[in-house]
Amino acid sequence: MRHGWGGQFNSEEYLSALVPSFYMYFTDKRHETGGKPKGGFELEEGPGYWRVQSRVKTVFAGLLLCLNIGVDPPDTVKTNPSAKLEAWTDPENPSSPNSKIMEAIGKALQSQYEQLSMRIRYKQVHDPQIDEVKKNCVHLRRNAKEERVLLHYNGHGVPLPTPSGEIWFFNKNYTQYIPISIYDLQFWLGGPSIYVFDCSHAGNVIANFGRFVEKHENENREALAQDPAAQVPFYGENILLTACGANETLPTNPNLPADMFTACLTTPVAISLRCFLLKSDLKHTISLKDLDRVPGNLQNRRSPLGELNWIFTAITDTIAWNCLQKPLFKRMFRQDLMVAALFRNYLLADRLMRQNGCHPETDPPLPLTHNHPLWQSWDLALEMVLVQLPDLIAYEENGIPYEYQHSNFFAEQLSAFELYLSQGALEQKAPDQLPIVLQVLLSQVHRLRALILLSRFLDLGPWAVKLALNIGIFPYVLKLLQSAAIELKPVLIFIWARILAVDNSCQNDLIRDNGYKYFLATIQPDIGIPVANSSEHKAMAAFIIAMFCKDFPQGKVVSMTSDLFKACTDHLKDRDNPLLRQWCCLCISTLWKDYQEAKWTGTRDGAHLKLCRLVIDPVPEVRTAAINALTTFLDYSDHVEQVAMTEQSIAAGLLVMAQDGNSMVRNELLIFFSTFIKRYENRFLVVAYEALLEERQRLQEPIFHNVDVKRSKKGNVTTQSVPHTMTEGISSFSVYATVWKHLMVLTLDPHTSVARKAVMIVDYIYARLLVSPLQVQVRAAMDALAQVGHKVSQSRPPSPAPLQRLANIPSASDHNNKKDDSYFTSGLMKRTTSAIWGTLTFRNSSSTDLPPSKSSAEKLGDNHIRGFAPDEWSRPPDAHDSATPSDHVPKAQIPIPRGYDDTQQIDVTEAVHHGEGAEILPLKSTFLEWSTEYFREPQMKTSELEEPGSDDYNARLWRRARNEKIIDVTQPLKSIAGTNHWDLHSGTFSNSSQPRQLCFHQFEEHIAVSDDKDTISIWNWQRKARLTRFSHGNPKGSRINDLRFINEDDQAILLAGSSDGVIKYYRDYDDAEKISIVSAFRGLTDLIPSTKNVGLVLDWQQTQGKLLVSGDVKVIRIWNAATEICTSEIPSRSSSGITALSSDQVAGHVFVAGFGNGKVQVFDQRERPQTAMVQRWSSHKQWITNIHIQRGGMRELVSGSRNGEIKLWDIRMKDELKTIQATRHTLRSLSVHEHAPVFATGSESHHVNFFNTNGTFLNSIEPTSSLLHARNPIAATAFHPHHMMLACASLHDHHVNIYSCRDRETVVQEI
């Protein structure tokens, strides 16, 4: 193996380092979205929708007890024995008079209600008369005002409610039962109210209640019609709970209380224990009286009674959450503590009353819940307590040691929830256990585990956060911010980040409870977080603070009291966590936006200078965030000199980012430019006007006329400069002029969205000039430009459409002065005139007969080396090729980036002319919203590509298996490829335009073909079918120089570079409907867009993720695909342009460059740029047509020059290993197979010659072509990387021919 690389492959350590990681480039979120928010995420109900908007509280309660102890009502027949307990009190106690018993029952009932809510004031009315009922109802409503009133009616001692909606009370002497209509009760009590009716036939009340309310409302409408100012009662927002249906009688079981419905509503644990014991076998060992000896109290969750109450609350909340509609759940279970408690207990009442022959009813009605599976868990919890009750009683009586065994209900529910999460939550459906998880947060034992599971649930996405907020997570996590437990900090930060990413309306809550201090303390560098990825959690804390300060002045003020600036700027040095650097930048951005005090504090701390240093940060998101922060820094309220100097220095420091390889960075830079320009608009109007005058002067004395080209007697080219002067304006050499020139360059940006923004800014300034006091002079300059602009317009790309309309704006003095569309298109608005000549340092491209001019020193150096060789030797082989007419070729569509929308484009000129342009600048940034989406996306969940069993995962496995099979089948053919003939014609297809570049995909049946202009076609070489055809978008006069497939192991992306220095990456290149631009940038800024020079050459290193770019420049630029910046510029150390590049595709450190003067140089990227050239060969005397290092095989390094010489090299040797004269004609192309010892040459004579690397001639072919162009030169050749196959094309012929090695048929059959 050549170059000493054979020893590396004998090293296990080296081979293990080269194990393919299948790292794919340009697949990050910024490439998927183009830096634009996905959109479609909005809270339908608005921010804070989950909060209880109208929190009506129950403040007063009336307890009406109509028992008439000792007297049974006439329409009731009681069994003997019968149920008799009222409020767990025996009314037949002979030792107490009836009045005392009634008082005891009333106190007991009130005590039961007080366990539900202590904040309610109760009024007991025993066996009330009609006047008492009216008096007390009116009194309750008067005191409650607009709050809710509770009315409890126990009618066990009066007749049944009538079908017409009447209930019964007593007369003054208690000799008669007097009916009162529900209509009257509504009139006295009004609304909002909650009614509890515990009596037989209670369903009659619900049957008539709505009818009476409607009658009252009709009366209100009539009263308002007569007197609009009349005060009318409110009868809405009523809630009814009734014990049974209209024709049902309450249970009479003597083992149950007579007011069983009330017992369920107020003492659910006690009645549950009694009912369960009655149907359980435990009744033989435990008596009903023993139930009163269950230890503990309801408030102590570690006691048996408290634990049961806790479990009951969790179960009923969960049943309600799963069965009720969410608005009804929020109204019944989250608005009012009393209503929530009654309805939780009502679910139990519905279950137990049904078991005893009654069907309770409610208004609003609830769905059936009595058969929910969770009731079985409740029964289990009851049984576990009752089983232990004898031992607990023995411990109490005799002191026998016994330790209570707590229920494992919550642990099991957490395990069920964990199982749900482990399944991936395939459907966006609320898990049954979510309310239970929130209840578990109350327990210190299970709190940490519950929080971790809750964080995993919230990580599923915004839908999960919405569910959690709806169910009531917020008060829990807000209260936990007061906890000092260090182990809760990471998970609380994670949960709060997810909440604020979905709804940041919690800012006031964080201030009110001082919760923001929790995160301000966390972000400090010296505060530790007990988790491995502490930097990521600090990034979350920075995000939370950023959301806290976003458009919230109070949040900014309180945040400034901490050492926040110092903490954020210190974290900018954390090289290991780009997310932390990004959000520290955005935290600073939101903090000092529209807050002058923060700007001054940041300036004193040098925050803006530290942000400027991030222009070379390796992560594009961090660079963009830094620009975002510096953009919000600009809007100082005053224009003092110190501020202006600071802002100018910032603008100057960001100019380098105009050449950034990431479009998101350049987009954000334009937003900074728009803010800077808007802030100093008058100065930029002067700059634009002077640029206009300079444009006119340039066109009148063009630069390309300033060189007098002469030819000496020996044929050497000499130049003589023709001096001319350019008038300098007052803005020359200022920061404003430099920003303007960079802005003009960005109007020609290859990325559509970047160019569009730049065009809007420039359009705005020129439109402002046309309505400024300088409008007369501006129009005069534009008229002059229109007169001379047609001389250079032929070679310039058309200006953007909005600028063409500038010419049609009438002046303020003459609204009838109209211009035609060519007014601007022939002059100023051909932006390449000033932008390119002023910034990009392009050379002369007007002559087709002369090479680029050189200085005298450069000419002397080249002539000395070549011995005064003819100029023809250092010119490309295709220098004299004529362009193919394109009239008959349809124009292809130019792909656009994902998310780009040109339908919202603003007519800037019209807006400015009509005085509506004030809001155009500054442009609005969406980067903060785009960055926030990170916290809305699952971070813990494995991606689809890495999830075993997913479609994407299976597709990737299939592709890898296919790739390995292709390699396994084709590798053995290397031996015959170097001996057999390559003349098996395998197919031909017509490209419809002149093929210039050919590139095979390693594994897909794709071949990319570019023509001599701007069109790329993707063909399936197996089926000879075109898949797509699209335009690269390079300007007229340039062409596509190179094509490459990247990420070939998986889903490939097509890379294309054109002679104007532009590089674009295309996703879904084989699908005309889906194709889009992943990335586009200008790899070289000093190239001539011409077909007569080298233009641009490149090579892609998949293993390193690097793109090597050079051409008619003096450096080789190395662009890092991961960072999207130029990480190194290696001097070429030659006066000639680089014509070919090839690199080691395995380790990726070494690359080789061929030059127009015949030199071949070897570079090592591990060395410093100044010493990176480690080898130079000068054996070739003419233009290097191509150079290539094999990826496999013997790793041969092959170079070929235009005179037909082919040389093989070893980078360790001073001289070539072998020289082969492949042709006596001009060598047009050289292709080397990646693995087989074969190379092919294409010549002027229409021949493609095949050789093996030993120098043995194998065979020659003449590609099939049309009869009119039978002997045209070969235009392009390309080997398939694995198959023994070559594609070739001839000049002035549209056909692409494919030839194979003779034994190919068996290979195809096997594959």
UniProtKB/TrEMBL annotation:
It comes from the Eukaryota. WD repeats lie at residues 1177-1219. Residues 791-824, 869-891 are annotated as: Disordered. GO terms for molecular function: protein-macromolecule adaptor activity. One of its GO terms (cellular component) is cytoplasm. Signal peptide: none annotated. Residues 55-210 form the Raptor N-terminal CASPase-like domain. The keyword Nucleus does not apply. Belongs to the WD repeat RAPTOR family. This is Raptor N-terminal CASPase-like domain-containing protein. It comes from Gomphillus americanus.
